[in-house]
Fold this protein.
Amino acid sequence: MPANNLRKAAILALVSVVLVIGSWELYLRSKGVAISYDNGKELWADKRAMVYEPADKATVFIGSSRIKFDLDIDTWQQTTGRHAIQLAIEGSSPVPVLTDLGNDPNFRGRLVVDVIEPIFFSSAPFNLERPTTNIDWYKKRTPAQRASFVLNHALESWFVFLDQDKYSLNAALGRLNVPNRPDVYEFPAFPDDFNCSDFSRQSKMTQKFVADTSLQHRVQNVWLFVMDMAKKAPPPKGNPVPPILAVVKEAVSKIRSRGGDVVFLRPPSSGTMGAVEQHVFTRDKFWDPLLAATSSKGIYFTDYPATSHFTCPEWSHLTPQDAVKYTQALITELPPTFTR
């Protein structure tokens, strides 16, 4: 093919790609889709690098999904003047991250640990996988990977279609409704409108989700599925609580020996999930031993009038509006060294 024809073909192909991508972007925008950042190991590592900020300038948060929804970072930072470093990981135990910070001789900060008992007091591999992967990525990331992250951030700030969690091929395949088979269960998908993530790693329910009870019921069904699977799972060998408490106690002691401090937090849950959690994971067997083993302050949501009344629309997380109120209440209950 002549060179001139090759150039024309290349230009035509480029124009076609731009048109396809542009059409997809405009379609998503027309549906009300907003910018949301990939909540993967790269973004987590970017925030993990911030934990060395002075202890009087920043507070670090670790845990599972509840603190990612329930802590309104803008409210926290405007009220306290301190940077909120969000390291919580959805559906994952915070114990590996706590251990990593405990073993880091340069971390001397203030740490708030979100406790969701079924996850915190579990050593199941799937509860530990993402924290382990994220920590490993943070420690081994190369200069090229850091540069790629900066470039991706710039692009994600402009285009909604780059949200890999929702609009990549893998995400589309994950939403296929594959029938369950004997001993093989398809994990139900969360609706796209459940939440979006900003660059600070805060998760927020979309207003569409807050207003649509059918979407809320879909997420409730996910939690029912999880609870049903937990019932069918074989019981752990022995009591998992003492060894987990030993690991947590050691990490907390190391952080305090360097001048840092740790507080444990139990955010709100409600509905069927809240009832099951409080029935199965009673405070005398889980929460109280955790505070006693670590000699720590604990903030349990039912103990305070300002936080005991919240209703989670899908039983497990607060709306953006209630997250603001919860954060304001949390600021008043935390020790002054965490907020001033």
About this structure: The chain has 17 helices and seven strands. Strands lie at 58-62, 83-86, 110-114, 196-197, 203-204, 261-266, 298-300. The first helix runs from residue 3 to 30. The two ends are 70 Å apart (CA to CA).
